[in-house]
Amino acid sequence: MTGKLDGRRIVITGAASGMGRAIAVLFSQEGAALALLDRNEEGVKAVAASLSARAYGCDVADRQMVNQVVEAAGMELAGLDGVINAAGILDITPFGDLDPDSWDRMIGVNLNGPFNVTKAALPFLRQADQATIVTIASVSALMPMPGTTGYSASKAGAAMFTKCLAMDLGPNIRANSICPGVIKTEMTRFLWENPEHTARATERVALKRLGETEDVARAALFFSTEDSGFTTGTELPVDGGFSWR
Length: 245
Ligand SMILES: NC(=O)c1ccc[n+]([C@@H]2O[C@H](COP(=O)([O-])OP(=O)(O)OC[C@H]3O[C@@H](n4cnc5c(N)ncnc54)[C@H](O)[C@@H]3O)[C@@H](O)[C@H]2O)c1
Fold this sequence. Notes:
Elements: E1 9-13, H1 18-29, E2 33-38, H2 41-51, E3 54-57, H3 63-76, E4 82-85, H4 100-125, E5 131-136, H5 149-169, E6 173-180, H6 189-192, H7 195-203, H8 213-223, E7 235-238
Parallel strand pairs: 1-2, 1-4, 2-3, 4-5, 5-6, 6-7
């Protein structure tokens, strides 16, 4: 690896699993000092132990808890240069059947979560030379899909939240979103474990495969280094060519 993140201190949410974990692995290989947050405390501690990173059990929807944890992380790392908002939840249910509590939870985790974490990290990010914020949104932020009123609204909100951060926090803080298509993680296990669903999902994308967590981790690396130094307020689909049609 190339040490692209040497000297950078980065908070990653949702780091016990899937994309958050893959981002933690790649960022650690690239030399970053990491604070990993997840509501799955045991899981995030296991990931952190293998990377010599710091781990915190934390529900990103709980503002008070986030404030305490992010402050502790910033103090332990003696500052923060970046945030990755990867924690998220998904409920695919047609609107007529969608439980209002589930709507509240998706907004709480997928939209309020990035707000809570970014707000708590801001005093540290402002002290950094060139800080970066990356939000894992979704192709659901870009296009309607059946049964995703809550998820898509939360992700479109998170993407626009991130775009507005770019306006408010430049020039020293950049903020970008990644919009993954179907990536093979726990969240989509119900889909990729079913050969019929997998065939349908791969057939409709130009690159004829489902995404791997590493596909997203490399995009997060791009947005967290000077390789993307003139890029802010964007939404990058990492979807094999899913969202253009
Ligand atoms: N997998 C996909 O196809 C896909 C596509 C587009 C976007 N996304 C988004 O990517 C992000 C990562 O998802 P993934 O696919 O890696 O899923 P995943 O389920 O493997 O990982 C999500 C992680 O977030 C954590 N988490 C959930 N709620 C939390 C909370 N309230 N506080 C702290 N941590 C919490 C979970 O414990 C888990 O470790 C999510 O925001 C998801 O919405 C996923």
